[in-house]
DNA sequence: CAGCATCCCATGAGATACTG
DNA sequence: CAGTATCTCATGGGATGCTG
């Protein structure tokens, strides 16, 4: 009971900053984004390779995700004007700094996944009982 | 140049696990979710208080977000059957363990926000030049 | 006060087909 | 190979109004 006053964002949290934080987090917390950053953490990779490794992503979403990450300076896109063309993607220095925080979240998710799924089941079961009764 | 082989998720990453990770991350990386967890990190709080502090959220989204967090066991909902009713929300122990990873991300966002916005401008400017040119 | 239900529009996101 | 373009359907999410 002595520590509920920790803050996620102590440094100063004007509404503007909080929204900016949420916006950035939403972007990097996006499903495809984290998977792409995850596979690129292994090193530079070509479009088709990312496409296969991520698995289940559509070309459209992969392209959009890559472009958005490039726009934010998280990844770098390098074109080799050979024929057929070859395009490499790799994390920038900025992108690499994302690995540690993301890794922490991954650890959290690993640690809590089973428990969360259990809690969900309980919750849903409880609600269906509530609904059924009355 | 000696360390591009770090992995976001070393512990084992079957497709199934990677997807589960992305799913959890997407949920907790959601815009309203992080803001709600952020304000609840200050301590227990009533619905209306969260509503005001988060700012800009609709009742609908707040209710949905809170329910989803409760379902995942991140927050606890306590009803005091007074009149008018009073409902408190607070982070569970599990929820509190989220504060540290989230805080790290917040730090990352703070550190990189300005640079990212600059990069975005450059990128957009570059693209508009490309588009304008032949 | 704390929410649920409904309407309605904007965006997200898959599938498919075409191109440099 | 590495995309772009379009079509389409599902979901997200705001606004409003009602209820215990």
From TrEMBL, chains A, B:
Protein keywords: DNA-binding, Transcription, Transcription regulation
Coiled coil ranges: none
PROSITE patterns xrefs: HTH_HXLR
Any one GO molecular function term: DNA binding
Residue ranges constituting the HTH hxlR-type domain according to the UniProt record: 9-117
InterPro entries: HTH_HxlR, WH-like_DNA-bd_sf, WH_DNA-bd_sf
Keyword Transit peptide included in the entry's annotation: no
Descriptive protein name: Transcriptional regulator, HxlR family
Organism of this sequence: Bradyrhizobium erythrophlei
Native organism taxonomy: Bacteria, Pseudomonadati, Pseudomonadota, Alphaproteobacteria, Hyphomicrobiales
């Amino acid at each position: 009971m002595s520590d509920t006053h920790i803050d996620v964002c102590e440094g100063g949290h004007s509404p503007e900053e909080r929204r900016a934080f949420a916006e950035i987090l939403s972007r990097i917390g996006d499903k495809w984004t984290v998977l792409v950053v995850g596979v690129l953490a292994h090193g530079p990779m070509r479009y088709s390779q990312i496409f296969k490794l991520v698995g289940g992503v559509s070309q459209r979403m992969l392209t959009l995700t890559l472009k958005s990450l490039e726009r934010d300076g998280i990844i770098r896109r390098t074109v080799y004007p050979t024929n057929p063309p070859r395009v490499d993607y790799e994390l920038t220095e900025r992108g690499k700094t994302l690995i540690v925080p993301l890794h922490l979240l991954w650890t959290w998710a690993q640690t809590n996944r089973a428990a969360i799924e259990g809690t969900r089941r309980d919750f849903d079961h409880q609600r269906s009982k509530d609904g059924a009764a009355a």
